[in-house]
From TrEMBL:
<feature type="transmembrane region" description="Helical">
    <location>
        <begin position="46"/>
        <end position="66"/>
    </location>
</feature>
<dbReference type="Pfam" id="PF01914">
    <property type="entry name" value="MarC"/>
</dbReference>
<feature type="transmembrane region" description="Helical">
    <location>
        <begin position="123"/>
        <end position="149"/>
    </location>
</feature>
<dbReference type="GO" id="GO:0005886">
    <property type="term" value="C:plasma membrane"/>
</dbReference>
<protein>
    <recommendedName>
        <fullName>UPF0056 membrane protein</fullName>
    </recommendedName>
</protein>
<feature type="transmembrane region" description="Helical">
    <location>
        <begin position="72"/>
        <end position="93"/>
    </location>
</feature>
<keyword id="KW-0472">Membrane</keyword>
<keyword id="KW-1003">Cell membrane</keyword>
<feature type="transmembrane region" description="Helical">
    <location>
        <begin position="12"/>
        <end position="34"/>
    </location>
</feature>
<dbReference type="InterPro" id="IPR002771">
    <property type="entry name" value="Multi_antbiot-R_MarC"/>
</dbReference>
<feature type="transmembrane region" description="Helical">
    <location>
        <begin position="187"/>
        <end position="215"/>
    </location>
</feature>
<feature type="transmembrane region" description="Helical">
    <location>
        <begin position="155"/>
        <end position="180"/>
    </location>
</feature>
<comment type="similarity">
    <text>Belongs to the UPF0056 (MarC) family.</text>
</comment>
<keyword id="KW-1133">Transmembrane helix</keyword>
<keyword id="KW-0812">Transmembrane</keyword>
């Protein structure tokens, strides 16, 4: 019993340790705040909760059916990286060129007229995908799912490994919610000017990450062609 429990905990920690550095929820807090600068505090709480739910579904779906979906449509992981990198680059570019919410005289009232359906759509795109769960974490989730498919036999493969993955993804999603839910407190110590500067720097880093992800995907596609020559 103890050996089974230790194996379960090790699998949970393994999945969480693989996903968290890629997703980096604390580092994405400035991005979330910049994207929701014109939303009310209540709407931010709702968005945080919906993003966590979507992140859970996206990661779990990528882990267990992502590889099959890509095979069905004939899409390779490098193509996913290029497409996801383009989305991240576009979102980061918009963040770099957006006016801070404080500079807009109507910024305090804009969020009051957003419908719940519009908030759900915004929670999924671009906040949940590709900003929170991007092509990097999707690739990791697909890889983890493939590795669990070869983990032992019987109940260990069909019960313990899927359950451990579900618990790990749930913990990661809760951590995402907590970081976004209390993001304003995390940045309050920086002050208004410091927060704006930090958000701009984060947007630039996100832009660089998007370009890097696109480059990684393009390199994986081009290397076999160059090697063939």
């Amino acid at each position: 019993m103890l050996a089974t429990l230790l194996l379960f905990v090790s699998k949970v920690l393994f999945v969480a340790a693989a996903l968290l550095p890629i997703m980096n929820p604390p580092g994405m807090v400035p991005v979330f705040l910049a994207q929701t600068a014109r939303n009310t505090p209540e709407q931010r709480v709702y968005l945080s909760r919906r993003i966590a739910v979507f992140a859970f579904l996206l990661l779990l779906g990528s882990m267990y059916i992502g590889g099959f979906v890509l095979e069905i449509f004939g899409v390779s992981l490098p193509v996913v990286q290029i497409s996801g990198g383009m989305l991240i680059t576009l979102a980061a570019w918009r963040m770099l060129n957006d006016e801070p919410a404080e500079a807009s005289p109507a910024s305090g009232q804009l969020g009051e007229h957003i419908s719940r359906d519009a908030l759900k759509q915004k929670a999924f795109y671009p906040l949940a995908f590709p900003l929170t769960v991007g092509p990097g974490s999707v690739s990791v989730a697909i890889t983890l799912g493939a590795s669990f498919a070869h983990t032992g036999e019987g109940w260990m493969r069909y019960v313990l490994a899927p359950l451990a993955a579900m618990v790990a993804v749930a913990l990661v999603s809760v951590f995402v919610y907590l970081c976004y839910r209390h993001g304003e407190r995390l940045l309050a110590l920086l002050g208004q000017t410091g927060a704006v500067v930090f958000m701009r720097l984060t947007a630039f880093i996100l832009l660089c990450l998007g370009v890097q992800i696109m480059w990684d995907g393009a390199r994986e596609l081009l290397l076999p062609l160059l090697a063939a020559r």
